[in-house]
């Protein structure tokens, strides 16, 4: 709009150069050179102190106001000059009217004189010559008057052409300016109405967004309460799990299990060797069947122990103590077998010692069964708690891993 106003101002200027101004950024070959120079020469526009015109810059409202003020001043000056010209023409026409009136009066006087002359001619033939002379003078006067009238007509025509030329120039009147300002004001009102509609639509959208945000906040609050409840449940689960095992305990149990498996493998191997030697020593006394039974019983005890390890990893530490007792009993048995090997025993002595060994094995087996029952009860309790806290899958996975590891160890020892 600012650029359009500037172009309109320049288009309304049609005066000639009053003085030459050279702008460094407006060459003579530029398409707007004449318009810029005319506007500058008329005093409607002016360049910048650095000698540039900056024709591509946007016009500010201040610059537009200054140009319009200069245009109004120029228009007022043109109106004043036009009024002076009209006044002069009016005065000149009035003077010509007076001259014409005087000529008409002269013609009327001449006509009267002609009438008098005719009368005189009728009355006096002598005066005819004088009358002819006056008539000649009158004709000359009329001719001169006709020339003067023709010249006056030409002057009036030239003045009328000059007036039309002035009218043809695109000067902005106050009415035209008021009309354009009224149009601009109407457009501004339309834009304001459109802006009000847009603001109303925006406020409606903002209201919807606020409602959505409130719904989201309600959902977030609900989720927060749910998360808080879950945190409480997890805290309870964590407290329950803390009562059972930690990562360090698990690693310790794995290490103990590995050590226990290795020791039991070694013990089983040594025990097998000793049983073999014992079988050789007792072959004459029919002890092979009893030793097979003892070996089978011990193997069953070992299998029970491995089953206990597979069933619950969290009680392996307690089981380690019991296995230690079993190991001590087996060591005692091994020592007794070594003593039997070193000594020559009778069948009765061997039978007595074997009975004593059977008693110990039965005691160990009974203790192992009690431990198994205790472990089963503990496992049931753990499973119930883990099922309540939805962690049974993880527990089963851990047990499966430990069971697989122990099974692999057992397979390696066989």
TrEMBL record:
Keywords tagged on the record: Coiled coil, Signal
Check the record and name the Pfam families matching this protein.
SLH
Q: Which residues form a coiled coil?
A: 316-392
Show the InterPro entries listed in the entry.
Cell_Envelope_Struct_Comp, SLH_dom
- The signal peptide, as residue positions, is 1-20
SLH domain sequence ranges: 19-82
- Know the name of this protein? S-layer domain protein
